[in-house]
Amino acid sequence: MIMQHQIISDATLVSSYINGDESALEVLITRHKQKIYSFIYSKVYDRDVAEDIFQDTFIKVIRTLKRKAYNEEGKFLPWVMRISHNLVIDFFRKNNRMPKFDNSGDFSIFSVLSDNNLNAEKRIIKEQVENDVRRLVDELPEDQKEVLLMRIYKDMSFKEISDRTGVSINTALGRMRYALINLRKIIEKHNIVLTN
User: With b meaning 16 or more CB within 10 Å and e meaning fewer, what string describes 27-65?
Assistant: First the structure.
């Protein structure tokens, strides 16, 4: 029985659950619990809080699925991770503390900027984040700022950046790396939350 579950895709399990098979949800939770719980714990460093947020995440998942409002075709885990990420942010807002997001993994500050299907409220938040990011970028040294803007906002390759700026590709890569390291430092210094 267990072996069978390994090969059933998340999407199939989700639709089984929506169509009344309660056990399908259990398989999904079991399959992803470790990854989701670890992510939450890495932000809150408190087992009880992490448990609560984990539970809340799946309450939200269940409600959304029951309302048949889920449409993230085959992207079940990223969707659940986004829900848990938002609940972590809510937890910190309520407690006036701010989580540490290292901007690696799935929640790069720039992924917020490229999310196009946003409602009005999220659009305002997105504009706010864009303004914040622009202000942060302005604090970078000129050479790092130049590479970052070309890469992120103009979508240029490092080869194109190298040609445009007259430095080697390695130098361009180095400047980009330092720009991101410095951005992180600036974000931590100002205790800024960038989230969608």
Answer: bbbebbeeebbebbbebbeeeebbeebbebbbeebeebb
Q: What is the pLDDT of residues 167-184, one digit of tens each?
A: 998 999 999 888 888 888
Residue pointed to by tokens 């009005």: 120
At 112-131, the pLDDT tens digits run: 455 555 556 666 666 776 77
Burial of 101: CB neighbours in 10 Å, binned 0-12, 13-18, 19+: buried
As a whole number of angstroms, the distance between CA 56 and CA 49 comes to 10
Using CB atoms within 10 Å of the CB of residue 119, give its burial: 0 to 12 exposed, 13 to 18 middle, 19+ buried: exposed
Handedness of CA 174, 179, 185, 191 (dihedral sign): negative
Q: Which DSSP state fits 8?
A: S
CA gap 57, 37 in Å, rounded? 10
pTM of this structure: 0.49
